[in-house]
Amino acid sequence: MNAPQLTDADVAAAVEVLSSGILAGPDHPAVQRFETSLAGQSRVPHAVAVNSGTAALHCILRALRIGPGDEVIVPAHTFIATATPVLMVGATPVVVDIDASTYCIDPAAVDTARSTRTKAVVAVHINGHPAPVDQLPADLPIISDACQAHGATLFATPVGALGRAAAFSFWQDKLITAAGEGGAVLTADEEIARHVRLLRSHAQEQIDGGPDAHHVALGYNYRLTGVQAAVGRSQLARLPSLVRRRRAIAERLTRGLADTAGLAAPAVRSGAEHAFWKYVVSISPGQIGGGRGELRRLLGAAGVATAPRYPIPLTRQPVLSGSARIMPCPVAESLADRLLTLPIPATEQQADRLCEAVRGAVQAARR
Question: CA 16, CA 341: separation in Å to the nearest integer?
Fold first, then answer.
């Protein structure tokens, strides 16, 4: 897990809210400022802060009136929270395969899986690579799961502006964090924004502008605190430079690993700008003795921390057994044993040393 990168400015922003004595509430000034900054960064009119990326996806599904009897298509290669909000609204996740190069949802698999019950597609911008939203059905609502893709763009459009609505996460290991947790819904749809604002705070509406309130629907306590919002906004100001730096280091890693037999660096689709939350390589079957496990062992011995990337796809997650419609996912199943996350170093020199260590480990594993 990436350690949260907190600066003195982030701490000062949190202390300012703590010192104010007013810490929470959906209309907290710090929350409103964070929402304004998020909307501006993604060039959309509406941003609604919530307390997690999972809550953001749940609220979007509720705002789209998706429920029992409906289906929502999700990719097999993603974190479980892409699919569980579908269960939370009583709908059925339909798990489909992914593209072999970008690891994002496969448009052809979506076309095969859709039915008369299909009400939406969740396009996950996996590892920071934009999903092919432009190739997904135009007659279905597309939900951008942008929880891993802060700062990514597709054809110069921020991922937060792709689809009917986008969900972001600000958990502690994301490129930007809201003091450990947090999320947001971004959308150009005024009705979705209104609905999410209602749901995040117990669906409470004031009566005639007075102190009394009605609770007009089943709502939730999905509010973000002022402290979290202040830290998130402080971090957001650094996002463009952070993403530029990660892209530069990732490109250096890709060049350094280009001729490493048995190892494929991350692909980037033409027109996409990858945010590189994760740098994930693919190991070719049979070319590296012992496969991913042996490569991890050798790199660990060299002081390089690595992690398998989604070794259990959604096709095999127990929570979805009997509650999801699972389509054939040969690509996701194959990649489950082959994808490896490498660290993204801070400097070019460290990137070069990492490439040397990886090449050495691969060579040792091939002997």
Answer: 37
**pLDDT value for 75:** 98
pLDDT in tens, 195-214: 999 999 998 888 877 777 78
Q: How far apart are CA 292 and CA 336, in angstroms?
A: 10
- The overall average pLDDT reported for the chain is 95
**CA pair distance 143, 133, nearest whole angstrom:** 9
- Spatial CA neighbour of 224 closest among 23, 81, 15: 23
Domain extent listing, the chain: 8-238, 240-366
Longest dimension (CA), the chain: 77
- Please check whether residue 181 is in contact with residue 204, taking contact to mean a CB–CB distance below 8 angstroms: no
Is the whole model's pTM more than 0.85, yes or no? yes
- Picking from 167, 130, 161, the residue whose alpha carbon sits closest to that of residue 277 is 130
Which residues are within 8 A (CB) of 338 and not within 5 positions of it... i.e. 6 or more apart? 282, 283, 284, 285, 291, 292
Question: Hey, what CATH class is 8-238 in?
Answer: alpha beta
Residue 73 main-chain phi, psi, to 5 deg: -85, 130
57 burial (CB, 10 Å; 0-12 / 13-18 / 19+) is: buried
For 131-159, b where at least 16 C-beta lie within 10 A, e where not — what string?
bbbeebeeebbbbbbbbbbbbbbbeebbb
Separation between Cα atoms, residue 222 and residue 183, nearest integer Å: 9
Handedness of CA 86, 87, 90, 93 (dihedral sign): positive
Helix runs in 65-127, H state only: 84-88, 107-113
pLDDT digits (tens, 9 = 90+) for 32-49: 999 999 999 999 999 999
Q: 240-366 in CATH: which number?
A: 3.90.1150.10
Give 210-217's long-range contacts (Cβ < 8 A, gap of 24+).
none
Q: Number of C-alpha atoms within 13 angstroms, CB side, residue 242? A: 21
pLDDT per position as a tens digit, 83-132: 999 999 999 999 999 999 999 999 999 999 999 999 999 999 999 999 99
Residues 287 and 304 sit within 8 Å (Cβ to Cβ): no
pLDDT band at 228 (very low <50, low <70, confident <90, very high): very high
